Amino acid sequence: MISRNLDNVHSDIRGDIYMHALELEKQGHKILKLNTGNPAAFGFKMPDSIKNRIICDIDKSLGYCDIRGMENARTAIKDYHLSRGIKNISENDIFIGNGVSEASYMIISALIGTGDEVLVPTPCYSLWTNFTFLAGGRAKFYKCDESADWQPDIESIKRGITSNTKAIVLINPNNPTGALYSKEILLEIIDIARKNNLVIISDEIYDRLVLDGEQHIPTASLCDDVTVVTMNGLSKSHCICELRCGWLCVSGDVNRKKILIEGLIKIASVRLCSNALMQLAIGDALKDSAYTENMINETGRLSIQRKAVMEELDKIDGISYVKNIAAFYLFPKLDIKRYGFEDDREFARKLLDDKHILIVPGSGFNCVDKKHFRIVMQPEENILRNAIKDIGDFLKNR
Ligand SMILES: Cc1ncc(COP(=O)(O)O)c(C=O)c1O
To answer: Which of 11, 44, 127 to mutate to test the pocket of ligand 1 (most atoms within 8 A of CB)?
Structure first.
């Protein structure tokens, strides 16, 4: 009865283990939900810049707007990307969606049809595989290499290319690994795309959430010929996931861009427009870099919470991890055999039952070794420390 395209679709961040957590909640248990990067749930407040704009302009947001997004908002987005080094873009290259999620549906629907292939990373935030499958396409995985700080493996990308490949997806900074990609790796991927006539889709929603004074490099800032679709939004940098505000920006060769934009206009018109109220706040939000910087500087919550997670993980035998540089996540590896689990899912399920802590097993990100799990480092320091200690106790008592 339901579409065959759903066969491979899975969103384990909100999958069966999550549903089990909701059942436990109904039974009266308090569950610590470390499954989603959902800042508001952990006390991150809406920036005043956004709140004030929404309150002032609410009456202006009631009609349908331009299918691509309001002109002022697209100008603010264009200026933001120009300031980050992306060249030759105009308002017409930008489409605003209800979050990066809808914008990714738009770009995949415009690009991918039955049998087309998209190269996606493993581990991978499942949005990109899911929309590829829903479009009738095939998601093919390339490896990100844990022994090389989770950078994409160039040979694995090359091996994955066939005559059906249309696009390469990059998630940089990465969810779930928290990795930040080097300029050398990005240049190599651009070269592969150039030689094979592929579109690069670069999901950069965490570009402003980079720790340790490191710099994020937008893929599109490194080339002006290859078609790059840069994805970004306010859910994470401004902690307003629920208000649904994201976009895509197409750059590269003018003629190739034109065809893709014609496709995007068709898709955008089908779904009318995105949440207008949020578009009114984009200009103010993108000027408000202080809000995000306060989270990531040395004394900011993200820096402190990451330190707490790492210090507590270091005390647990059989857990190793690559230090994350960006985003909200750490992706540790567990010695599954030593603790007698069948795989990462069994670990996650038993941890939930025993300690009421909800994490996402690595296989939820299509991580093939089934030995990893993702921790969201958003709760306050003491909550995170206690949670990791509980994980340690749980393992010790096996
Ligand atoms: C890599 C990545 N891309 C996109 C999204 C979706 O973002 P949005 O809230 O803008 O739909 C997320 C959300 O967690 C994400 O981690």
So the answer is: 127
